[in-house]
Every structure is written in C-alpha cells, then in structure tokens.
Amino acid sequence: MSGFGNECATEAVAGALPQGRNSPQKPAFGLYAEQINGTAFTAPRTSNKRSWMYRIRPSVVHRPYEPTDQGLLRSTPFHEVPTTPNQLRWDPVPMPTKPTNFVQGLMTVGGNGDASMHSGVAIHWYAANTSMVDTYFYNADGEFLIVLEHGDVRFCTEMGIIDASPGEIVVIPRGIKFRVECSGPIRGYILENYGAPLRLPDLGPIGANGLAYPRDFLTPVAWYEERDGECEVLAKFMGNLWRGIYNHSPLNVVAWHGNYAPYKYDLANFQCINTVTFDHPDPSIYTVLTSPSEIHGTANMDFVIFPPRWMVAENTFRPPWFHRNFMNECMGLIKGVYDAKEGGGFVPGGMSLHNCMSGHGPDADTYKRMTEVDLKPVKLEDTLAFMFETRFVVRPTAWAMKCAELQSDYWECWQGLNPEFKAP
Fold first, then answer.
1. Which pLDDT belongs to residue 280?
2. How many CB atoms lie within 10 A of CB 302?
3. I need a labelling partner for 186 at 20 to 30 A (CA). Which of 43, 286, 314, 324 fits?
4. What CATH architecture applies to the domain 8-267?
C-alpha cells in the first residue's frame, strides 16, 4: 500500500475487516476491536490520526510494567552536562562486538524540549548485530524517524512488516509496538520526535509538484503472529524504559484500517528543487518531512536531505556558505562525501552538531578549492547527507561529550581560513 497519510485498509485473513461499521458488536473470527489514536480526538480532520485494529488479544492483556535498565538511552530534560556553544563532531560509533539488539544498541547523543509537553526532539544512534527474539518495543514519548546507514533491517510491527535498506527511512509512530530483525551488523540514526506527527511540508510558490511525493511513502500490509509464550515488551514512557511481560506476541493484529501506521520512504525518490541562475536556496528547500510547531513557519523539527543533484549556478560559491542560524542543525552522512566537508573528518555514520548562532560552514580546504573551481555544470553523485533541524538547542548527553568518538580537533578544520582582505 502507499500514500502518505491516506486512509488504508488491509487484512491478513479475508473477512476480518468489518464492512460498514468501525466497531461491530462482535467482530469476525472472535477478534477484538481496538482503536489507536495518534492525535487528540478533536484534532482537525486534516491532521487527525487514528486506526482501528482487529486483534487476537487487546493491548491491555499483560502483567504490570516495571522499571528496567536503559543503557545509554536518555530523554528530557537533557541537563546532565552544561551545553557548549562549540561546534561538535563525532566519528561513527563502532559496531558492537557482543550480541546486541536494536534497543540495547540505542545511544542518545542529545535532545531538547519536554517529552511530557509534546515539544522537542531527541537524537540517537543505533548499532546492533542481533535480532530481537521474544522482545518488543514501543515508544509512548514520541515517534521514531529511523535513518538507515549500514545494513538491511526488518521491522516487524503490529501493522505489518517493513523491510528497509540504507538510503531509506522508516517512521514508527508513537505507541506502535515492533521488533527489529537483522542478519548482520546494522547502524543508523534516529530522530525521536516529541512534537506534532511528521507530515509533508507545504510547497508554497513551488506549486503542486516537487520534493517528496505522497505516493512514494509505503505502509505495510496486515500480518500477524499467533503464538503463546512469555514475551518481553519494553516501553519508553516519560523518558524511562519499562519492562512488561506478556503471555503472547503483541504483534497479533489480523486486520486494520486507518491513517495511523508505520511507513517507509526511499530517499532516491526525492525531487530536488534548486537554482538555475545564481546563489542557492536555503536548505529548507530539501525538506522531506516536518513536524510543525505552534509558531507558524518555525518547525519543531525538519528532516532535510542533500542527495545527488546538479549544480549549475553562475558566479556562485556552490557549497553552503558560512552561516549562523537561529535553528539548530544535526547532520549525518549515509554515503559518499558531503560537499561542504571534502577535507575529511565527516564520514558515513558520523555526526555533527551546530547549535544556535554557532558559526559553521565549509572547511578551509573546501573553501579554497570552491572559490577557484571552474563553474561549469556538475552533478554531485554517490552522496547522501541529511540534517535534523530543530527550533530548540540540542543539549548533548554526558556520554556524547566524553565518548571516544567525539572529535576534539574538529575546530581545527577552519583554522586555515586566513585573512585575505586587501584595502583598495
């Protein structure tokens, strides 16, 4: 199935979905009807998110949850260490050497806002090498936007299976239970969105076409596990990790319909909009998904990509210029070389963080080369970078500020930018 935010209907067993009634007195095959709401009941119809599930057991059937160890997973408030105004950059985290599943491999780099107030984000890495067996996870604090960088991943969710590869993203909405399977090492990035659900940005003067198309977002078809036996369900709730014991698999939804479901998107389908004259537009022109805030034009967060594209601008410094922003930028690299950091240090799996009003831009080597390069049309190929942009300062965790991957010499990449001013 496809179509971003569209009403979907799917059944793993023919006849499991009711016809004409959302919640009949007695659903077919002895199933239980259960609704999941991703927004307030009275949210406008255009933004209201909900789905009906027809499941073997309702979600209420489990033993009480108890607190459990959360490893390097952190949440609001992010006050472990003072937040530095310095530019920060990390090497990729190494793959685990001992068996580690997806939840065990979550490492929080930083975040902002207040999960209990539905504002802000958290930014995580994941690195794992083992499938989740009889272990499941859901996040009551926010939705997960998962950016795959290394290794194929299978997401077995309440609403179906999603297979994804590097270059694709997967979004798991708030509250949806899932487990992660892999056949080898996997690694990537996660944006945990506490705010309004992600949606496509408005196009404004661009018009009807461009950027990400709704039909390219794929939701899963119904699939279910019918099996008894002890299962562990881990819940992220109010910033803490909780452990519940079920006597059955929670992935027991036989049929569902609605517009609240996990989905994936292949970033290769993004249609870039760019300049054909001079200068270049702000990075917001590459926005794939946005979480709007209560302030019009100021997003809780934007997910922006920098994919292969033609560069044709005349009399223009083509990489991003030196800049200081109100918004806060966390960047990652999926493959290739980022055109503003050709001098090295920013590699696939790595991450950089430039917070509010911290100056940043191309390294000295890239600046020198791009001020002298022949400005003929050129296509940037074999590259894919992305940016999590958020309105609040990203406060790093204590782990992120002391881990071996933090580059203590990042600041040196700009020190070759010597004065060249000559008074007339």
1. 83
2. 24
3. 286
4. Sandwich (2.60)
Whether 342 shows a pLDDT value over 90: the answer reads no
Q: Domain spans of the chain?
A: 8-267, 270-408
34-54: b (≥16 Cβ within 10 Å) or e: bebebeeeeeeeeeebebbbb
CA distance 307 to 338: 9
* pLDDT at residue 20 tops 90: no
Catalytic: 280? yes
User: Does pTM top 0.85 for this prediction?
Assistant: yes
Q: Which of 62, 118, 248, 280 is catalytic?
A: 280
Number of H helices, E strands in the chain: 2, 26
Q: How confident is residue 23, by pLDDT bands cut at 50, 70 and 90? A: confident
Task: Please choose, from the candidates 383, 160, 174, the residue with its C-alpha nearest in 3D space to the C-alpha of residue 260.
Answer: 174
3-state SS, residue 167: coil
pLDDT averaged over every residue in the chain:
96
Task: Give the Cβ contact number of residue 22 at 10 Å.
Answer: 11
**pLDDT average, residue stretch 257-286:** 95
* Residue showing tokens 């805030």: 293
Q: Which of 355, 354, 327, 373 is nearest to 413 (CA)?
A: 354
d(CA 102, CA 79): 25
Asked whether the predicted pLDDT for residue 21 surpasses 80, the reply is no
User: Can you tell me the distance from the alpha carbon of 350 to that of 333, in angstroms, rounded to the nearest whole number?
Assistant: 6
Q: What's the CA angle centered on 92, arms 282 and 146, to 5 degrees?
A: 60
pLDDT, residue 1, reads 67
| Confidence (pLDDT) at 5 | 83
- What 3-state DSSP class applies to 115? helix
Would you state the CATH architecture of domain 270-408?
Answer: Sandwich (2.60)
Q: Which two tokens stand for residue 126?
A: 């994941």
Partner residues linked to 245 by β-bridges: 232
The answer to whether 71 and 93 are in contact (CB under 8 A) is no
CB 73 within 8 A of CB 241: yes
Q: Answer whether 8-267 and 270-408 agree in fold.
A: yes
Residue written as token pair 């949440």:
75
- Distance from C-alpha of 272 to C-alpha of 212, rounded to nearest angstrom: 9
